[in-house]
Specification:
By secondary structure, the protein is mostly helical. The chain has one domain. The chain has 21 helices and 2 strands. Strands 1-2 form a two-stranded antiparallel ribbon. α2 packs antiparallel against α13 (277-298) and α11 (225-259) packs across α12 (262-275).
């Protein structure tokens, strides 16, 4: 697959339904990849909770979050900047220069960062996770992070050329290898936490070697000062937005660590992981597709119509998925989690609500991205992060895990509201906020009904919850929260999808092709 072929092959739909179908196809591809990888990852939850104590699981969580925080500084918004500049390039030569420059830049900054911070591993380990934890844990985690930082450019290039199938295949293969190594290191060799860290480093290194060879066969290493300057101007303000996203997603663990204990962090992290599935399965796949696709849509004459309908449909899907996760969370946790961690179930519905706001809020940043107002994105994120830190301190101190979860909800809600206000000022778009709010209120109401089933038999509970989930889309349709345009688009997209299935099966209009 060459770059030119991949770019030419990208579909250019003629109407709203076609554009939405294209977005859905790529989102589903990324989503199915996430389903596969996260399903495999979730197979590790019983293993982790059996072979790791809550203290060790809490340590693993703090290490992962520390690397994510460091990545906010080092990445400098390069992913979004590379996708933006790639989409705006006028020729294949210019696109290759952009990718080659970005790859060379991350290689150099990775080498400088690794050599510069290597000598501070031991004191940093004592400060971050305490003197009782071996500093080699932080060293292994930091090494895997640096490898992943360089690996991000080939992965972003796959997204830029909309090679979602290859992207998903690489991720799935990596997770399969990670699963195998974790079983070997945890179950057979009984290495504990250090085995998990070695697994991450080995898999990231192998993936970097293979994808770097693939990239360098297509894109030569080069340096274009103008391209780098353009990417940094666009990306640097996003550093603040990324740091804010980190604070909004993960600062609660640090507050729980210092105001409660690492054991509480471990229990909370398990519950949060289930609520976070909404992010993994819907928000992130959409985000991965949307970072490049929104610029293509914006060039179309009917982009306002596409943006509006897509937001309504995307928000209703998010709400429905969050409702399903919240309603079924008690049964899921009892099935998958060791008894020592089951108290974390209490935060799942709250975290699911938070990620509905998060997913919608990211979409509401659309106007700021399309007008290159990334400084606005950074300021909005910074404000939401400050609010989150204040809420975490107040609510964690008083309510513990539940307070941490609610701090996330209110912070994401504030982020969504501020993003909508700022985007509307620079690029007003009709997003149907009232109808989306009505769908969210319906979802919350149905969840509250499901809570009345506590103490009922399992069979009755599952039947009633299935009915609750079935009635949500029916009410949306009946009370016309889906407007005429969304209804027509939904019907047309469904017809197109069904026709595609018939063609795939070698049939035509429901009949065997003769």
């Amino acid at each position: 697959m060459t770059e030119t072929t991949a770019v030419v092959a990208a579909p250019q739909p003629e109407n709203v339904a076609g554009e939405i179908q294209t977005a859905v196809r790529h989102t589903l591809m990324y989503g199915l990849g996430n389903v596969a990888t996260k399903a495999l990852g979730f197979l590790m939850v019983p293993l982790y909770t059996h072979y790791l104590a809550p203290h060790d699981y809490g340590t693993l969580e703090i290490l992962d979050l520390t690397m994510s925080l460091f990545g906010m500084f080092l990445a400098m918004g390069m992913t979004a900047a590379l996708l933006r500049c790639y989409a705006g390039a006028d020729s294949d030569i210019e696109r290759r220069k952009i990718v080659g420059t970005a790859f060379l830049f991350v290689i150099v900054t990775a080498a400088v960062a690794y050599s510069g911070l290597l000598g501070f591993v031991q004191p940093a380990s004592h400060w971050i996770i305490g003197p009782s934890t071996p500093s080699r844990y932080l060293l292994l985690s930091f090494s895997a992070f640096i490898v992943g930082y360089v690996l991000n450019v080939p992965r972003t290039y796959l997204r830029a050329i909309e090679a979602s199938g290859w992207f998903v295949a690489a991720d799935t293969a990596s997770v399969l290898l990670m699963l195998a190594l974790n079983i070997i290191f945890l179950v057979l060799l009984k290495l504990g936490l250090v085995g998990i860290l070695w697994s991450s480093l080995i898999v990231a290194t192998l993936q970097l070697i293979l994808m770097s060879v693939w990239l360098l066969r297509r894109i030569p290493l080069c340096f274009d000062g103008g391209a780098l300057r353009k990417m940094l101007i666009f990306g640097l303000p996003l550093t603040f937005a990324n740091m804010a996203t980190f604070a909004l997603n993960f600062s609660d663990r640090f507050f729980l660590q210092h105001l409660r204990s690492l054991e509480v962090v471990g229990v909370y992290a398990v519950g949060y992981k289930f609520g976070f599935m909404l992010n993994y399965l819907l928000v992130q796949p959409f985000y991965v597709m949307w970072q490049s696709r929104m610029y293509i849509i914006h060039k179309r004459t009917n982009h306002r119509e596409v943006f509006g309908q897509m937001f309504v449909l995307y928000s209703f899907v998010l709400t429905y998925a969050g409702l399903g996760l919240a309603v079924l969370s008690p049964e899921i946790v009892r099935l998958m989690v060791d008894a020592r961690f089951r108290q974390g179930q209490e935060v799942i519905p709250i975290v699911a609500l938070a990620y509905i706001f998060y997913g919608a809020g990211y979409y509401m940043q659309l106007g700021m991205f399309l007008t290159d107002k990334t400084s606005h994105v950074g300021l909005v994120g910074a404000g939401a992060a400050v609010l989150n830190l204040a809420l975490n301190y107040i609510l964690v101190l008083k309510f513990g895990m539940i307070g941490a979860a609610w701090a996330t909800v209110w912070s994401f809600a504030a982020l969504a509201a501020a993003s909508y206000w700022c985007s509307k000022r620079v690029l007003p778009l009709p997003l149907g906020i009232g109808r989306v709010s009505g769908g969210l209120a319906l979802g919350v109401g149905l969840y509250m009904v499901s809570r009345l089933l506590i103490g009922v038999s399992l069979a009755t509970t599952l039947a009633a919850k299935a009915a609750i989930l079935a009635i949500f889309p029916v009410i949306l349709w009946k009370v016309r929260l889906l407007g005429p345009d969304e209804r027509a688009t939904t019907r047309e997209a469904a017809t197109r999808a069904l026709s595609g299935v018939w063609r795939l099966l070698g049939m035509n209009d429901g009949r065997v092709a003769g």
